[in-house]
Amino acid sequence: MRRRQMTDDDAGAGGPLDDGDAGSSAPSVRDRAFDALDRLVAASATERLLISGSALLLSIAIGFLLILAAGRMTSCGSAAYSLLGVGFCYDPFLVYDSLFLGAFGDFLANPLNGQFATTVSETTVLVFTGIAVAVAFKAGVFNIGGQGQLVFGALASALVVYGVSGAVSGLVGTLVLVSVGLATGAFVGGIWGAIPGALKAYADANEVITTIMLNFVATSFALYLASGPFKDPESFANQTRTLPEFALFPQPLFPGRTDASLLALALAITVAVGIAYLLRGTSFGYDVRTSGIQPEAAEYGGVDAARTVVASMALSGALAGLGGAVYVFTIAGNFQTGVPDYGFDGITVSILAGNNPVAAIAAALLFGVLKSGSIVVDVGTDVPPELVGVLRGLIVLFVAMPEFFRMIGERVDVRDRLGGSRDAVATDGGEEA
Amino acid sequence: MSATAAVSDLGTRARLAVAGAAALFLSAGALALTGSTDVLLAVLALLFEKSTLAAALRLSVPIAFAALGGIFAEKSGVINIGLEGLLIVSAFGGVYVTSITGSVWLGLLGGVAVSTLLALLFAIVCIEFRADQIIAGLAIWLIALGLAPFASTVVFGSTNASAGTTFPSIGRLLANSGLPVVSTAGVAALDALAGVPFFGALFEASPMVYLMFVAVGASWWTLNRTSFGRWVHASGENPKALDTAGVRVSRVRYAAVLLSGVLAGVGGAALSLSLGQFVGNGPTMVNGKGFIAIVTYLLGNYNPVGALLSTLLFAGLDALQLSLQGQNVLAIPRPLVRTIPYVSVIVVLALFGKTRLPEAAGEHYESGEE
């Protein structure tokens, strides 16, 4: 009963929890409350979009200055770019052109080109790690361990699928292997995610530290397995045996091994929408969100906060592990040490998307473009591709300080249109979406 | 006042003792798994070797300095989870300035300057623009994780960079000091003391090790015996009272966060300059030391001395795993041995996770005047 009442005003995220008065009185009051909430949510979503957009632009602007500064610190034969009579070794416009447009390749001539394929496959993995972080955030848990969960998910699915691949073949084989691989990745990632969840819930160990430590443990452990017991004997690199072609994700559209499967992307989008529904429309999602916003109120409302934390971390880990399996199936073809930073990028994706699983798809595309574009930057210019790492940090920093944009907003007087709600991404739930 | 201090000290000591026991128990358990007393004895012998203490002291420096910085920031109410990032940029800054000037001491200053600048950015973001401290701290780490290898590649053409020189030993420092008695008798005494088994390592360490001990003492003094220390404490526990007493809370917090930048900067520069190089690929040479530092001061209950002791515990484990890797005592593969410090951090956090944060830590404070 009490739980029902709270559902009515839980969507008021950030608003006062007036203990269900609105719910128990006349429906008209409820309707009015919902109207108000709808407006609040809408205003807040616009505001979020503005904040994320401004954070992105500001990061790009600072990156521009950084490229210019770096161009002064290095030496080159002739200036690539000059501004106000000063020569710079790097041309920021060329860099950004490579970064953002390069990622699409020659899209108009051939939409199925290799570079765009890379963008699609990177985006796919990032959707998984992004919603992984978002789910944990919703429960008020900051999962920085996506990287470790992804690494273990990838490793486990590569090993299991290789082990099973001898037993099946053909189209049925593909179906079986892909499902087995995805399930394995999700399961192992889920367990690796549940550990810090349980440590937080039952031993009060700060998840930020434990998840980071578990990343180091996972990386080392995966190195041990991929360089020792499960090493591909025919390779010098630390990697497991390559999976047979039919065991990989089907790529009906992109020809040959151009590393992109629209089926995988479709799966990612389906999962994202499913997670959004899980959070919005189910009682589990309700538990998760209330524990994130108001742990005390959630307990009071009959939510087992400890169990919710463990469950949401397990779910978060499972999503990251799923990302790892997809990485193996679409990009790597086996497990190799030195997995790219998808887990950390997932944090940026989630924060940029305001922890909204559906918005995370768009944010993942942005970072897919950045990751793929950084390869173009690496090949086509002298600017180190680590630039993208800096941009990633800057974006997180700026999204974390909405007050900055509000102060600017006040100057140009758009504040009235935005409404006064102050709930930005925060580690205590990052409510609203 | 003194009674509560004594109680918290007692608490710190008890926690450290239990943590130490737990660490020993764990290592013994791990060894028992390998099932041989010979191995156990060999590891114990390693534990009491001079080189292990030397390595533990060397490995302690970046962690201890970062932990001291973290104590000031967090006690003032700003949780600085970006310590890792501060260590990374100062490790590179130190190497960069040293490679230009040829002086490790200027390099040290350079590292401190870079780290303090990044800490200033963090402070502005958290105090002025009320950012979520955890996310902003994480951003500082991510920025450093991109920026240091980026700058290294721009300047040195590779994510790894060489400074060309390292810190001189304390003996050479004295010998070159030109002071009449110290340069001869002092060096002779140090040489003699360095010959002592195990503890000899204390007398032939890098100057940064001694600076670490000085910094721990100075931090303890500042926090417990000066009015700035009392302000820091009040700013984290009861900012309103501090405000009422006429001290600007935001100023105290700025000072504390900048101080954390200075201290972490010393730690980061000491890390890279004691090796004479910066390693910037993957998680960089800092490799989680900033996060371990956070755990050490939580375990040390925000007491600089407690933080130093728990740092020595973690660094000792790290030194042990390095010797274990080097000497092949254990049958356990190297990548697994390397996880020992990280696993021990998790175990310690699970056992002592319930630390009492300063009352107002993580919260923005707004003075009523505005």
Brief synopsis:
With 433 residues, chain A is mainly alpha-helical. Chain A is built from 17 helices and 2 strands. Chain A has helices at 2-10, 21-24, 27-73, 92-101, 114-138, 146-165, 170-203, 207-227, 262-281, 283-293, 295-300, 305-332, 342-352, 357-380, 387-399, 402-411, 415-418; strands at residues 81-83, 86-88.
Using a beta-carbon cutoff below 8 angstroms, give the protein chain pair with the largest interface and the number of residues from each chain: A-B, 52 and 51 residues
> What quaternary form is this?
heterodimer
- Beta-strand fraction estimate of chain B: under 5%
Low-confidence region ranges of chain A: 1-27, 414-424, 429-433
Which CATH architecture of chain B is right? Orthogonal Bundle
Tertiary shape of chain B? globular
Shape of chain A: globular
Q: Can you give the helix content of chain B as a percent range?
A: over 70%
Mean pLDDT of chain B comes to 83
DSSP helical segment count of chain B:
16
| H/E element sequence of chain B | HHHHHHEHHHHHHEHHHH
Mean pLDDT of chain A: 80
Tell me the number of strands of chain A: 2
Q: Give the helix/strand class of chain B.
A: mainly alpha
What is the gyration radius of chain B calculated from CA atoms?
21 Å
Structural class of chain A: mainly alpha
What is the topology, as strand order, of the major beta sheet of chain A? 1-2
Strand content of chain A: under 5%
The percent range for helix content of chain A is 55-70%
Secondary-structure element string of chain A: HHHEEHHHHHHHHHHHHHH
Subcellular location (chain B): Cell membrane
Main location (chain B): membrane
Transmembrane segments (chain B): 56-73, 78-98, 104-127, 134-157, 207-223, 254-279, 291-315
GO molecular function, one term (chain B): transmembrane transporter activity
